[in-house]
């Protein structure tokens, strides 16, 4: 896969962000809305990795996913759903499919997302573009 130079955006969308009670509240409320009964088992996966759990709740959800100044929560969840599908992370796909259906997307819509992700990766693999050049392009930099 050859990466092309594109117009660079040097702005920082979160430069004025402050970690406070409101941020913590957003980081707690949004996952509860998304995951409902799936939240407790998800949180338990972080029991022995407390820093990762804190980062997920306070930064990922409190700063990024619950902030709708760039993408709204529904759009953010659509991006995440596509990402975990592309990585073939079955348990996470299940969590995010149910979350997406809770906040907007129908079963048919989720099936279309799945179809699109599968089509994208099938095309990449069939054309030999799934990262094959990236290793070669960077080999001499090591």
UniProtKB/TrEMBL annotation:
<dbReference type="InterPro" id="IPR029032">
    <property type="entry name" value="AhpD-like"/>
</dbReference>
<dbReference type="InterPro" id="IPR052999">
    <property type="entry name" value="PTS1_Protein"/>
</dbReference>
<protein>
    <submittedName>
        <fullName>Uncharacterized protein</fullName>
    </submittedName>
</protein>
């Amino acid at each position: 896969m050859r990466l092309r130079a594109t117009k660079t955006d040097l702005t920082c969308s979160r430069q004025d962000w402050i970690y406070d009670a409101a941020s913590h509240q957003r980081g707690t409320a949004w996952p509860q809305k998304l995951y409902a009964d799936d939240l407790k088992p998800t949180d338990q996966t972080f029991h022995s990795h407390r820093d990762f759990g804190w980062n997920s709740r306070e930064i990922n959800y409190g700063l990024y996913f619950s902030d709708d100044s760039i993408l709204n929560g529904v759009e953010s969840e659509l991006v995440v759903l596509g990402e975990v599908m592309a990585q073939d992370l079955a348990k996470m796909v299940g969590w995010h499919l149910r979350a997406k259906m809770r906040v907007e997307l129908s079963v048919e819509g989720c099936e279309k997302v799945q179809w699109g992700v599968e089509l994208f990766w099938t095309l990449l693999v069939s054309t030999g573009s799934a990262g094959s050049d990236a290793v070669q392009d960077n080999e001499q930099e090591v």
